[in-house]
What we know:
The complex is a heterodimer. Chain A has a domain at 11-208. Chain A is built from 12 helices and no strands. Chain A has helices at residues 3-33, 41-59, 62-86, 91-109, 128-145, 147-157, 159-164, 169-195, 207-217, 222-241, 248-252, 254-268. The longest helix of chain A is centred in the N-terminal third of the chain and has 31 residues, at 3-33. The N and C termini of chain A lie far apart (63 Å). The mean pLDDT of chain A is 89. By secondary structure, chain B is mainly alpha-helical. Helices cover 69% and strands 0% of the residues of chain B. Residues 329-333 and 339-357 of chain B have low confidence and may be disordered.
Amino acid sequence: MGVVDWILGVLVRGMALGTPLLWGALGEIYAERAGVVNLGVEGMMILGAFFAFAAAQVTGHPGLGLLVAAVIGGMAALLHAFVSVTLRANQFVSGLALSMLGLGLAGLLGRGWEGFPLSNPLPELSILPPLGVLLAVALWALLYHTRWGIILRTVGESPAAADAMGIDVALVRYLAVVFGGMLAGVAGGFLSVAYRPSWTEGMTGGIGWIVVALAIFASWDPLRAIGAALLFGTLFHLSFRLQAWIPPEPLQMMPFAFTILVLAIAARWGARAWQAPAALGLPYLRGER
Amino acid sequence: MVAIFAAFIAAGGIFSAYGINPIHAYAVIAHDALVVPGAFPEIFRSTIPLLLTGVGLVLAFRAQFYNIGAEGQLLAGAVAATGVALFTPVRGPMTLPVMFAAGFVGGALWGLLPSLLKLRLNVNEVITTLMMNYIALYFVSWLVTGPWRGPSVRGFAYTDQFPAAAWLPLIPGTRIHWPTLALGVVLAAGCAVLLARTRLGFAIRVQGENPEAARYVGINALRTTLLVMLLSGGAAGLAGVGEVAGVHHKLLDPNQVSLGYGYTAIIVAWLARGQALATLITATLFGLIYSSGDVMQVSLQMPFRVTSVFNGLILFFLIGSERLLAYRVRWAPRPAPADPPAPAAAPHRPSGEEQWE
């Protein structure tokens, strides 16, 4: 087997693993661009994974499963939006609560569904990977070259200014968070109807947290998220592939270490690209400074 | 309290959706987790790590340092203690104290990097501590499958068993490793005194409530936060020592060393509302939820994950009700409105609300 073939093989697998990372990260990027951190990705993904599997198994249509996953992810995100935007509770804690709740619910509901392979799985590399790349490009264009994009970024950078312009800050944040949740749901659904067409409890296995890291690593830029997802996906694949020669764990911890490193470097040398949206994590109340 | 109650009702709804009568479920839980002989002490098995970790988090939260990394700090403590027990010549009665000291240092060191990044470069500590959790998780799983895998347990991913000197004594007839429990109680009391009566405690409180004012009166933010994080990480590290020395007697898969204690402790600390002594109650409550999880697994054939449903719901209701609670208190002097307006309506209230917030 040639070296080129081997590298290509690794990259293709990296893309397969990178796909849920990309979808999830795109959603998280949009939510964070609007100023709302959602640490509930892991929870939304696992719910998406379970409901996608259940819907696909019952109806026989994996595409329908993904649709259901998007709806469920959006609904879970709605809860986060309500608590963090309307009730203005701590976003980080609310996200953690969503992750716990999602993992718990999926584990509870999914009990009878374990161990059956999906009868009609989606081919892994057929639809979602290329669609994810297209989506990333579209979201990038939307973010940087349209009026909507400016509105979204303004809400994340300076909600007071957006408010003064007559923009409904809460509405924009709700939309961004729910949209992010829908993508996270699809990302989870990809796992259970295409990547590993079955349902196992806790099957997201921390991918949701990598997504959170990825959004930062990609400096909240949908285009960079493509490369970053491929990188993290490849790292994860290599950790299995090279198991015979090097232990998998050091490679698996790399996405997390990279993210800390990138944050530190960005803060140290003031790299403009890695400036987080200024109002990230802050609830907005009109009149409050 | 209302929040917890609401969470239990919501969980009851989930039970019934699951095809189990919620009243029956709670009756079974109450019976099997409290009444059945030998069940009651089980509560304290999870209470111990939750108490130690929760007290540490109370300190951190009081200083407005959002330490989400207790899980990783706990694991780091467990690793340090294991290192002492298996790979140093320390033996005899000194073993356990040295293990606790090592565990404290391990946990504190694991919390050091995020705190330095926060203090020096203003990097968000929530993200870094969270990332450190996963680094710790993979680190432990690398240790137990690789260099530390016990030669005598070929094929299994854990270390050799600790020598007897590294086993924590248990209260007879139970599985409570009492030295760790005592340590937790002492720590809770100590932190309460620290917060209420000492210079450092004062600095922590001022810094947490108003960093601007803290800077103005000359409180050294670097020193305060660093001390807080050393204590907070160290306390989580102690919990890790308790788990390996009191329960498992070896280092094993990270998800078995800690059943998400580091995350649950966040709720324990949040619910304690910054009062170190209140963690004694809240940690016991969550110990009860953990032991109920075991009960539900056995008696109701529900997966253990049901505990994270409880945890998630309680946390949601808790932070959700905080806002409502704050408003209700502030409206108290006025005649109570017929139907309490949703907080969303708050921004449209007449001027003057800035001062209330």
